[in-house]
Amino acid sequence: MSHAAQIVDDRAASTGSLSGAEEPAGHPHGVRATARIRATYNGRATTLPQLRSDGPFHLRRMRTDGNSAKVGIIGAMSAPLGGDRLTIDVTVEDRALLEVTTAAATLALRGPTAAPATYDVRLTAGEHAGLRWLPRPLISAADSNLRQTCHVELASTARLLLREEQILGRANEDPGHLVSRLLVHRAGRPLLDQQTAYGNPEPGWDGPARLHGHRAVGQLLLVDPKMGTRHDPVLLRTGSRDGCAVLTPLADGRALLATAVAPTSSVLRELLDEALAHALRG
Amino acid sequence: MSRAALLLLADGRFPAGGHAHSGGVEAAVAHGAVHDTESLEAFCLGRLHTTGLTMAGLAAAAAAGHDPLLLDDAADARTPVPALRAVARRLGRQMMRAARATFPSEDLELLAAERPRGAHQPLVLGLAARAAGLTALDAAYATAYENVSGPATAAVRLLSLDPLDASGLLARLSPDMDAVATAAARAADRVTTEGVDALPSASSPLLDIIGEQHAAWTVRLFAS
After folding, report:
1. Name one Pfam family in it (chain B) (predicted).
2. Predicted ipTM?
3. A2, A18, A196 ranked by CB distance to B197: nearest
């Protein structure tokens, strides 16, 4: 098999199946951890009947005003390292409102093996539920190897605000190999399905059709069934060197996606914040 | 099957309207990102392994006989910006006209009736390949090839490059086209058991952004 064929096939095998049926074996020394959050609505407010910390994920209930709940994920150890298999499973039941954040950026490092680590986020939101998934960026450090998936299942009336930021390399270093898939279903139908792959040995990953020298990439997804269906695309900065973004409606309507590329994490955040302000203005 | 039918489908002169589109190259040239043969080759390589793989998967799945309406939804989910969805459907409509004239089939008629404003182009190509007796892998090849030959041809016009250099880079990309077409056909095989989520969704955020920017230009040589 040619080099290119090997890469394409590996990539398909690594994040192609989100069902968990064909999970790789992982590394014997890697960490295996599954953290779980379950939010329910008791008729007055959101409660958290399940808050299960595991491995590197220490979950902390945070104070909120109003009837929503908020959970902070605090890194209890350095992860993901090569060979780790990490999962976060979040369920927001009907009418519950939950926000999840992380206390620090997630840093993917090489670890004891060059084998890929897996980091799977599964988000489920029921009818009239609201979920805000707003982690800090994921940093792909040199020589790391990470397969990340974010699989979201939304009921038809669920609301979602999701932000994903990927920083390719710490300051002035090459990134590791980062393959990331974002798959969102609404009422069982695909709403958004995107896989990105950066770092060696991905063909053309830094070329003019892909990163073109940028080192920060991010998306912000807003799903709201009460949103008007008529939205014109918004272009945020149109140069390409200093970072740029678009805010566009998805085909299914009542969902907006901001896509941004930038030279640095701070410019990326500015672009996504600007996009969010546009989105909320409606 | 007729191998000649594959040549016809992949031929840039097949009247399916592809010549009016640059596959993002016009915007990349305006940004200075593509300016010579080397940067064009890097562009084509990156496009092939992202959009190219995703479109080839859709074409292969349609050629394999999977439900084109489910695939059309899957194509929408893989195309987050409206400018590129509109382009895919416009090209699909033009491909449909050519396909009905060359490889008429009931599948094409049904899809044309269900999506009068056009289905995503790779699905129409996949159904035309199926009608011509071609395989899923053949459809994936035609799509992968078109994904790089279109931008390369457009760049020759935009930058006055030597057409021989453009052909040379396409030849150098052959192993990558093999890899992409093969992976796309394998993924299409898995649709029966895993559903459309088994298809590749490789994407390039930058291509989405510049695709939407390009659509807002008032003066342009190519439609996309």
Report:
1. UreF
2. 0.96
3. A18
